[in-house]
Fold:
Amino acid sequence: MRVWDQEGKKRWSLTEALALDWERHSVIAVVGGGGKTSLLFRLAEECREAGKTVALTTTTHMGKRSDFPMAAGGAKEEIFNLLQQEKVVLVGEQDQKSSEKISGVDLDTLKYLKKSADVVLVEADGAKRKPLKAPADWEPVIPADSDLIIAVAGRSGIGGRIGDVCHRPELAAAMLEKSIKDRVTPEDAVKLAVSEAGLRKQVNTEFRVLVNQVDTKPDEELARRMAALFQKAGVIAAFSHLRDSLALILLAAGNSVRFGGNKLLYPVEGVPMYRAMLEKGLAVDADRRILVTQYEEVAETGKRMGYAVVKNPAPERGISSSIRLGVEAAGDAEAYLFGVCDQPYLRAWTLGRLTERYQLGPERIAAVRSGSRMGNPNIFSARYRQELLELSGDTGGKAVMRRHPEDVAFVEAGERELVDLDVRP
Structure:
């Protein structure tokens, strides 16, 4: 995570960058575009490190995290006990539409949380994963006793068409006096954030803005330009890179000895196995995509699809040789997502869930499993770079996981998804 304050100074925490005071800001509501849940969990960790008890909840819907203890909205004794024992609790009801989310709590529960926890963090808005938004008449749902509102805007929305990057694009276009086909400028993004018809709607207390997805040097230059606009509007803003930069590394260099021919070319449902995986990889939220292979046909297809291709001249040395080449090609990426190209039943949706789970943290390894069976794909933080480079033979990343079991988060998948075709069907 990297964070800058409005003056462009690098800060070590969101608490510093957003000028938060855990004594004064005891109920914080977060509104706006995509990235709210990640922000809330980061703030919860910083709050707990500051010695405070913290309750996270929502007035709409929000994602869960397996390492955060959860209590149902009406379970007041359980909420109290978890705050005493764990210093943090996630409070809500299981969402009926998604096992990965919770839905909002009632006013009585919110009052109880304020009395029981030092700090209450509330997700008070939805954006359907869009980086920018304009609120509808009934939005946001801000608790009446909030001390601070933080609006979130995603850098990735700037330069995109309003219809593509904004939740409720018709409302955003009307506010900006533009068409939904027009592109969002930095000035537009600031207006959406600070306008009383935008993310500052219904705010009668302190207000901050966090611009996330500031991932590259050009992004940092843009952030400085936006900082001046926020200052002119009299709003405190901060800029962050909350997610790790991710390199997707697809391994396609095996000799297919047991298959009796190059299994990567074998069609499943009419598509060669390797190509199906390359297509799924395009849907991953990755900063770079790398393909490690020994096969010319696979390499040429990968290049056409935008992958950086690395040839493995010695695949007989085992999967560790491909892992090493992929990590070296990933450069300064902060995390590596490894996938294999002989896993034809893996769903793109599972890849997306795995990526999301890793980025939410705090574990620095994420893996797919079905029950007790663990398989590919998996993600490793760059903190494990040296251990990955030191693998040998046919030893893969599971060896690193076994050395650090406390740092592994799992995403469940269907049993069939983990099948790799080592022998001809």
Remarks:
- Residues 181 and 230 are 25 Å apart (CA to CA).
- The two ends are 45 Å apart (CA to CA).
